[in-house]
Amino acid sequence: MPALEALIERKLQQLSVPLAVRLPSGQRLGPPDARVTISFKDMTALAPLASARLDRLGDEIVRGRARIEGSMRDLMRIVAALVPGGGQLIQPKPWRRLFYHISSVVHHSRDRDARQIRAHYDVSDEFYALWLDPRRVYSCAYFADPQMTLAKAQEAKLDLICRKLDLRPGERFVDIGAGWGGLLLHAARHYDVDATGITLSQNQFDHVSQTIADEGLGDRVRVLLCDYRDLVPDKPFDKLASVGMFEHVGRAKMATYCETLRHLLRPGGLALNHGIAASGVDDAMVGGGLGAFIEKYIFPGGELIHVSQAIRSMSQAGLEMVDTENLRPHYARTLWAWSDALEAQLPEAQRVLARSMPPERAAEILQAYRLYLAGCALAFEQGWVALYQILLIHPNPAIATPDLPGAQSAYPFRRDYIYR
């Protein structure tokens, strides 16, 4: 295929970051100083590189028809150079927006949400333990001090959430999407709250249940295996957190999600939503198919909306936004820490995954996660996606303070309480 080879050669010459390609014949194209080489086993696998379809190039790597030689950090510099339009966000066609809405309705039934969550989180607890911090906190860390390790930054994030919620001893606290229990247990241990967590992952439920039993916390901490729509407490909670959950809800269910938060929260109570948001309004997104790759291999059913749309839905549900903080660069650093940790132990990761699935499948999952972690780190660095903590109140007109008669909650409307 001389025409394809010539096209690839021109593509490599135009790139601002050196990249080399090794053809099935063994021939090498590209500059000699390239720090990354992509080796192809089949000439047809070259087509996505020629067309800058990064999702399809990712397919070839996951399926083993292409192989990366070089570091993921260097590879992501090349990906940034390959993204069409230099990473400019592209507005979808009107018919595409209609497709997104229909897809959202179809993809977010209770049964499908449960299957999609388990497809991701129940891959292997041992696998996640290789590259997450010891608490297995699988969300954006908070590097309050630039010198912090990942473990310290995750602890700082958990504490930041608890302080924003102004947790007090004895309060009823619920964690929607509790993961491996990092926030749930931190709040119980350090703030002496009565804590409830929910998850759809069987692996996470088992892990948290065992930790609660091991630490003798069963009298005031519990975890439930249920959908957020099916949680019916005896009475509303005082404080609520939802971390890394909002991305799985879907556009079509956003109103239901926000209304559920309000129903779960007593009037005057505080809720904190910590989640990934799109950077572009009206479903604008970066080209090259990066989102399609994440949807296919990592988070089936995941959907991102702009923070303005999120706050609008929350407001329509009767919640008042009192504070919003963008932690986007913190997530880029978090993801690079995860990526580096995984890259440092690839043979062990392959062995761990192969204990619970065929080796070929384990190899595919490992390659998908390598691309996902590094690709998401790049996306947060470039501003293609964002991460927000949104603090909300369920207004209660009966609540007032002498200096703030219209407070309608215990929120002091001064940020200094968070840092005292």
From TrEMBL:
CDD domains: AdoMet_MTases
Alphabetized UniProt keyword annotations: Lipid metabolism, Methyltransferase, S-adenosyl-L-methionine, Transferase
Keyword Transferase: yes
Any one GO biological process: methylation
Pfam families: CMAS
Database matches in SUPFAM superfamilies: S-adenosyl-L-methionine-dependent methyltransferases
Membrane-spanning ranges: none
GO molecular-function terms, A-Z: methyltransferase activity
Recorded family membership: Belongs to the CFA/CMAS family.
Cited PANTHER family: CYCLOPROPANE-FATTY-ACYL-PHOSPHOLIPID SYNTHASE
UniProt-recorded name of the protein: Class I SAM-dependent methyltransferase
Originating organism: Paracoccus methylovorus
